[in-house]
Design goal:
heterodimer, A: 151 residues, alpha+beta, 2 domains, 5 helices, 30% strand, B: 151 residues, Arc Repressor Mutant, subunit A, Alpha-Beta Plaits, four-stranded antiparallel sheet
Chain lengths: 151, 151
């Protein structure tokens, strides 16, 4: 299992993923060789899966972000699979999540402006299969996004 | 109109999968020289399209088995200041993201917990104790996939 040093390393990397190993070592009061070894182990164990870039869609011209929450028609056994397969084909979908609760599936969609969103909504979203209920949450502001774990 | 071309989008797609790739290896895949690739990445960074990096951790392996999305409605709009609510909610370590939304709810929170009883603790002691909190709807995350969107 993880010890204190592993936790310190991961905690620091969550706040500064691009930090060079020497800096991680210094901040975690350890040696670069030790930190490199620990990182290697965390990777082999599958705990540290990698590092990805976060894209700012607003800068790319996608000013509108909407959460679409779906309840599916569960009388059809294939409802989930067919819905998810169709949703993956929509280019403006950036994330798909499935839930246990009142909502079955949520799609994050982005659009250049409201006219673009309306087009997406009418032409692509409404033609997704097996929708029984659909509601939209329009994003106004994001106040916290780091998705860090409280290690 | 847009200052970005298909090669930029290909770079963004690659970096949003794995941000640790070097300019050299990224460029080889796209038929670009290492300096040309580096210049494009630099330009995307300076424009703010490449906003930040995130490390991808296996939350479950680290002991966080439950992710719940909460829709929160404020009870007494106008009387409780949004700033008070926002300051308090963003300070909770288990709350990973906070989004201000328009629609059925006022805020959308992503909450991580060790298990369901740990989630109950966070919900009762932290979330329900927030200033002005009203209706709360919870949906437990079952699966999640990130897509590259319109790139």
């Amino acid at each position: 299992m993880l010890d204190d040093l592993d936790r310190r390393i991961l905690r620091f990397l969550q706040s500064d993923p691009a930090a060079p190993i020497a800096e991680v070592a210094e901040r975690c009061q350890s040696q670069p060789a030790t930190v490199a070894r620990r990182l290697e182990r965390l990777k082999t164990q599958g705990i540290l899966r990698g590092q990805y870039a976060v894209i700012d869609w607003v800068v790319l011209g996608y000013a509108v972000e909407v959460s679409l929450r779906f309840t599916l028609d569960k009388t059809n056994a294939k409802a989930f699979d067919e819905f998810l397969a169709a949703a993956r084909e929509i280019r403006q979908v950036t994330a798909i999540q499935t839930f246990l609760g009142r909502v079955d599936v949520r799609l994050s969609v982005i659009a250049k402006d409201m006219a673009d969103y309306q087009k997406l909504y009418r032409n692509e979203i409404l033609s997704l299969p097996h929708i029984s209920e659909l509601e939209a949450l329009m994003h106004v502001a994001t106040l916290k996004t780091a998705e860090t774990l409280p290690l | 109109m847009t200052p970005w071309d298909d090669l930029d989008f290909a770079l963004l797609r690659a970096l949003s999968q794995d941000a640790t790739q070097s300019a050299g290896s990224l460029g080889r895949g796209l038929g670009l020289s290492q300096p040309a690739t580096w210049r494009r990445i630099k330009r995307l960074q300076e424009a703010g399209v490449l906003a930040s990096r995130r490390i991808d951790l296996d939350a479950e392996a680290l002991g966080f088995g439950v992710t719940v999305f909460l829709g929160v409605k404020l009870a007494t709009k106008g009387r409780v200041s949004l700033e008070d609510f926002e300051r308090a909610v963003t300070a909770i370590p288990e709350v990973q993201t906070v989004q201000h939304v328009l629609g059925l709810y006022d805020y959308r929170l992503r909450v991580v917990a060790r298990d369901i009883s740990d989630f109950e603790r966070v919900l009762r002691r932290r979330i329900m104790a927030l200033p002005g909190v009203g209706d709360v709807e919870a949906n437990v995350l079952l699966s999640e996939e990130r897509l590259s969107g319109p790139l």
